[in-house]
Sentrin-specific protease-like (Triplophysa rosa), 356 residues
Amino acid sequence: QGRGASCSASFTLLAHSMAPEVRPLEPPRLALGQDEEVLSALPPAVKETITQARAPGTTRLYAFKWRLFSSWCSSRGEDLRRILIGLVLSFLQERLENNLSPSTLKVYVATIAAHHNLVEVVQEAWAGKNVYVLLSKIGPYKIFFADISKTAPQKELESEVINAYMCLLVRRFNAQSKEQAFQIDSFEMTDIWNGKNSKLKVDPRLYRYLISIVNDHYHWTVVVMLPSQRNALFLDPLGESSAKLKQCENATTAFMRQKGCNFSRWSCDTLPHPKQQDGTSCGVFALKFAECVLREETIVFRNTPEGVEELRKAIAVTLLQNSDDLSQLCHLCGEESGDINWSNDSSSSAFSSTAS
């Protein structure tokens, strides 16, 4: 992709054009003629708030911060891809009852507006807009517009997207769990899979999970090592053959022994999961498998074309939402720039601001 290519300041406007503009979030309104029907299905407290908000001279701002809202939804088992108005209003009602200040509500407004614009950026990339600009950075992995374009339907995810998303999953697990997980880069794990010695300096016994994605002849699969349980998991979007399960057992056994873990017993298992139905979505399935493993959830999701498209969009938006600081990086080549000051560039923090 030519990421090491030189760049000039004449392209700085390109980075500015990609920054999402923060737009005000309008208070929710009910369509004329549908008020009674909609109100009758809502909780009493929400119904009362809507009635008061629509009274003359009364202005109430319903806004929420995306990450707080998504966490709130997850705690209730709600699907963020299918949000009903009643659910949103119940969330807002809780915020109102907690006496949040207007200044706090403004933060929620800016966040949700930015989130919606991230979806627009993803859709532009999927539509084939030819732009070369750095959009996000997750640890050592840099996500450009071209990488996001590869998350589109019928396209194969590339290693930068795979590793960046895995980095996020491991970060989240480690932030929420006393036990820790360790990410092995896909390039390193593919070498391990193929029988090469690993140069990683890691003690597997310090981690609950050592997890990675393997590129096996242009097909993404998941390998998870659980030292405390003395076994590994192998998950193939197309299904696990006995030969591949044996290869996983041999590769992970060799890795553990190389790192000083000479277990007398080591096995390889798999877990039930939806199967890939096309020829391009193995990376999407692999990331979803890894996400469910780290959440310690049953691997269940829609493997229909529509369901997979939603997963692709969620992966892309998540990578943009959770960017590290871009202020010291050139937005064209992704390298640290000493001659261009991006600190005042609105695009340098536009995406990362939604992750606060």
